[in-house]
Amino acid sequence: MIWEELQGELDALQRDGLKRTRRTLELPCGPQAQVDGQPLISFCSNDYLGLANDPALVDAACAGARVWGVGSGASHLVSGHLGAHAALEEKLAEFTGFARALLFSTGYLANLGIVPALVGRNDAVFADRLNHASLIDAVQLSRADSQRYPHADLATLERLLATSTARRKLILTDAVFSMDGDLAPLPGLLALAERFDAWLVVDDAHGFGVLGRQGRGSLAHFNLPAAERLVYMGTLGKAAGAAGAFVAGSATVIEWLQQRARSYIFTTASSPIIACALASSLDLIAAGDARRQHLWQLVAQLRDGLADTRWRLLPSPTAIQPVIIGDNHDTLRIAGALYARGLWVPAIRPPTVPKGTARLRVSLTAAHSEAQLARLVDALRELA
C-alpha cells in the first residue's frame, strides 16, 4: 500500500535522527518562549533586531488595518496592489539604492520568480553549493544548465564561466549562508559578473537589516553599487520583523519581473497590514545602530565564552553562530539537554546541512540580554 511506504520512510527518518518536530509557541516571537507550559529562552528565531513584537510595528499594523482592511483581495496585477504596497516598494527602493523594488509574499516565492524569468533553456546558472533550497529549486524550474561551484570558490567559478557557451549566464548566491553564517565574496562575484557579462542574483535574507550602513544589507557591507546587472532579494520576515520579501534592481529588470515572474503574477498580494508594519520597520532598521551594536557584543560574548571548550564554532561574523557536532543523534541529545535546562537551540541535520555536519544553530538577536546568553554559554560549557 502506498501509505504504508510513506510510514516506512517516516520510520526511517526517526531511526536516522532526521525526523523534524514542530512545537507550538504560547507567547509572541521573542527571546522568552513557552511551549507546553515550559518557559524557555529561545535561540531559534531569525528576528535579528527584535522587531517582530515591537510596539511600533504593532501600532502601524493596527492603523493600517483601519485604513486598508485586512486582505488585498487579488493579485497585484489584477486589483490587489494597494497604496500601502506601492508606498512600501518606493521606500524599499530608496533604502537599498536601486531604481525600483517589487514585493513578493515570501522569499521562497521571490527566488522562484527571479531565476526562471531571467534564464531558461540554452542559458546557464552558476550557483554556490551551499545556496538555500529556494535557490536550488529556482534553478530547476528555470530549465537552464546548472553549474554548481564549491562554496565561495571564485577560481572554480571563473573557470566555469570562461568555458561556458551559454546564451545568458547568471551567478546565483546567498549573501549570508543561513546554516554557516559566513558571507559570500560579493565583490569578487560582481567582478566576475562584469567580466563575463552575467547576471548576479544575491539572496540577502539574513543580511538585510543587519549588515552594512544603517542595516542596508550585504551590498552596503561591501560598499557595492546598485549595478545594472545586480538583482537583489531581501526577506522581510527576519530582521524586518514581519513577513514577505522584495526584489530590487534596475527599472528594466523590475518591470520584466513584474511581467514574467510567475510567483508574482499568479498569487494574491500580501495583506496591506504587513506593508504598513514594514514601512515602520524600515525606519527602525535605519535608526537601529544601537540594536546592531548590542547584537555584535552578544556574538563576541558567545565566541569568547566557548573559545576554550571542545565545541567548534564556524568562523561566522553574523548573528548565525553554528556549533558543529557531527553525528545526528549526538546533536539531538545535546539539543535535548539544553531544552531540559530551559534553553531552546535547534538541532540542524541533513539534508539541510551536509552529512556528518549536524549542528546546533544558535541565532542571536538584539532582544537577547547578556544574562540570557550567559545561561547558554554556561550550559554548553557544562555539557562539554
Automatic annotation (TrEMBL):
Sequence positions bearing N6-(pyridoxal phosphate)lysine: K238
Cofactor field: pyridoxal 5'-phosphate
Keywords for this protein: Acyltransferase, Biotin biosynthesis, Pyridoxal phosphate, Transferase
Pathway of action: Cofactor biosynthesis; biotin biosynthesis
Assigned EC number: 2.3.1.47
Pfam families on file: Aminotran_1_2 (PF00155)
Sequence positions that bind pyridoxal 5'-phosphate: G107, Y108, S178, H206, T235
Annotated Aminotransferase class I/classII large domain residues: 40-380
Record bears the keyword Transferase: yes
Keyword Translocase assigned: no
Residues where substrate binds: R20, H132, T352
Entry's Gene Ontology molecular function annotations: 8-amino-7-oxononanoate synthase activity; pyridoxal phosphate binding
Matching InterPro entries: Aminotransferase_I/II_large (IPR004839), AON_synthase_class-II (IPR050087), AONS_Archaea/Proteobacteria (IPR004723), AONS_Proteobacteria (IPR022834), PyrdxlP-dep_Trfase (IPR015424), PyrdxlP-dep_Trfase_major (IPR015421), PyrdxlP-dep_Trfase_small (IPR015422)
Entry coiled-coil feature ranges: none
Gene Ontology BP term (one): biotin biosynthetic process
Record's signal peptide: none
Reaction(s) catalysed by this chain's protein: 6-carboxyhexanoyl-[ACP] + L-alanine + H(+) = (8S)-8-amino-7-oxononanoate + holo-[ACP] + CO2
Quaternary structure and partners: Homodimer.
Function summary: Catalyzes the decarboxylative condensation of pimeloyl-[acyl-carrier protein] and L-alanine to produce 8-amino-7-oxononanoate (AON), [acyl-carrier protein], and carbon dioxide.
Record-stated family: Belongs to the class-II pyridoxal-phosphate-dependent aminotransferase family. BioF subfamily.
Identification of the protein by name: 8-amino-7-oxononanoate synthase
Highest classification ranks of the organism: Bacteria, Pseudomonadati, Pseudomonadota, Betaproteobacteria, Rhodocyclales
Gene: bioF
